[in-house]
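As the next step, I needed to go through one protein, both as residues and as discrete backbone shape codes, included below for the reader:
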Amino acid sequence: MLHLFCNIYYKILMQDLRSGWRWFKSRPGLGLFVLVTLSLGIAAATAVFTVVQAVVFRDLPFRDPQRLVWMWNARVERDRAPFSVADLDDYRAQNHVLERLAAFTNWTANLTGLGEAERLEGVRVVPEFFEVLGAEAAIGRVFRPGDDPADRVVVLTDRLWRRRFAGDPALVGRTILLSGVSYTVVAVLPPRFVFPFRDAELAVPLPLASDPRRGQRGAGFLRVVARLRRDTNVTAAKADLDAIGRRLQAQYPVDDGKKTGVNLFPLQSEIVGDSRQLLLTLFAAVGLLLVVACANVTNLLVVALSAREPELQIRIALGASRGRLVRQILTEIGALAIPGGALGVLLAAWLVRVLARWGAAVLPRLDHVSVDLPVLAFSAATIASVTVVCAVIPALVVTRDLGLGARGDARTATGTAAQHRLRRVFVAAQIAASMVLLVAIGLTLRSFINLQRVDPGFSADGVVAVQLSLPPPRYASPGALSLFADTLQPRLAALPGVQRASAVSLLPLSGLLRTEDFWIIGRPDPPPDAVPQGHLRVATPGYFDTMNIAIVSGRDFSDDDRATTAGVAAISRTFADRFWSGVSPVGAHIRLGTGPAPLTIIGVVADVQQFSLDAPPTADIYVPLRQIAASDAPLVAGRMYWIVRSSDDPVRIADRVRREIHAIDSEIAASGARNLGQVLSDALGPRRFVVTLLGLFGQAALLLAAVGVYAVTAFAVARRTREIGIRVAFGATRANVLALVVGAELRAVAGGLAIGLCGGLAIARVLAGTLFQVDPFDPWTLLTAAGTLAAVAAIGCYLPARRASAVDPAVALRIS
């Protein structure tokens, strides 16, 4: 019996498929439109979901990642500050809410002994770091509690292992040279492992017991990850840790006076950062694009199916039920929609590779993005939903209206009144969705343009920055650093095409910072919780000139500013305005937390966007390299940027700079050469990625809206040829025909614009936090979006209407 039933159902299915094939074959334009529209819509939705899922939704590859938090010191002036060793010990001993916590710091090293030296980003971690994360090695064994942090061992990421060591499993147990020191490779991490510092490719132990800053409670340099207990949450954990912070503040008013407690952020959100909001905006946009595509296809199918009413009436007369006709239409349309969806998934797999290659440099966690099981589940659900919307709705509407004519209800050449209403509802829906999408695009684009217009405070044209990591054994003193700089600078300045050359400890827009407390000599000392901070940078003479950073007043550093002369400093305009409003600070004295000797302010320079183009200007302090404290030398040696301005090709200049550096010391890696223009471009990378895709989606939505309105209007006009011929025969003018055809469609468009305007205002409120110098309810953006859509829709209506208005009554009546 079951076999017989399956056989009968199979024959019915094949019959319906053949019927659908014949119908679409007789209308190749309709079939191609449905196939292409749905495949492109599903491809875009699947590709974007794949990226969003990989970056935002996919859990970190750790044990119970929901319990992992990034723990920061909360200070008066900022909510993300590092911990000192003493503070870390107190929080570890006194808390009741953390299962474990682990400290780490960023670190750079030169990989040598394997061809050209390469500078690598890495981290120093305490032995329990990997246990806190709940991470294991793919090969070998990661650090564990109880391991000696003084051991010279290293853990590599899968990316570094494959890139520099060809994925050799025998590497584990062998030694490699990092900044002139031998480290034994003990483990290779899994491919999807991600360090809290995105660019880190290796980890070595962090020996806190021997760190010279251990006894300095105010020396914050440790980042901390923690695992919450199972019986607590972030809110309860913060309350417990804040209580500890208050006790420490009272116990150590000088060192902890400005520390107000802690802030806990989910580790995943900290790693993803601002990309989350941008990608969710992109995901919403592609969803709107899919709505436009579905409304377009559904509307066109309603009109097209209404032309089959005579055929369907005959089937009813022969005994077919409404359910049978619905199943037939569903099978016919599904036979095109489902392959279109499958084609879209295949296209999405290619798009994902393109997006991953394009976005890997600007978005985290895209190294191993792929169309996996969750993505396939999303695609299957999307295809099923699209098929239901595009097939079931037209089938139900058309089959419901088959008997209306017999009951005397209104029917025209283009269908029943209900079909007219549904068609206009879908026109309004696609216009509304397109309107919301265009508003989002307009606001995001204006914000992006405003960011591009921000003056970074320096000139990037013709500037190359080469990052160095000097081996600590040989460059751990101020004298050694100064000697290296004094040797390298004239060699770089003498290169052909080089105009100026200098160095700085932290490059603008690098995302790195170093803050220092300071006191203004001659003013009363503020209370411990009100000591101001500045952002400290170390530079060589000529740095401001090389970067074209304007000197507002005073002078630049010179060769006379040496370790044996009085200490000097330059400050930014914001620093000067904040603490010497209306008065020149040149000649004033300040004292930094790094040393007791006062520094004389010798100059005020223009503000520089040090962290991002949309960040407010910072209070910057610059000190000369020759005058740094002994304790600062290892920090500066570990990360130093040489800046070269030239009129020659940046690639050639970078090669020449590397040769000069290697001529002085072959163990110094100079592989991180970057054009400063590229640095500026990278600062806008995530936004450019999203804006570009939003622009493509907006163009696709406009095209779909235009094609949809045009196709539906043209189809309806074709079916009204006889009616229009009669109207013209009885004296209707061309203007009358245009008004007849265009008027009804534009009413639906106007309704869609009104709904879209409300949706645009809602999406503007959601986007408000991501916009830069743009009013979320900017009237020009709203009017431009509405005007563009109205013009596109009007053209789509006018072209078939103009053709209808020129119809010859005699020909129309004879054809009809």
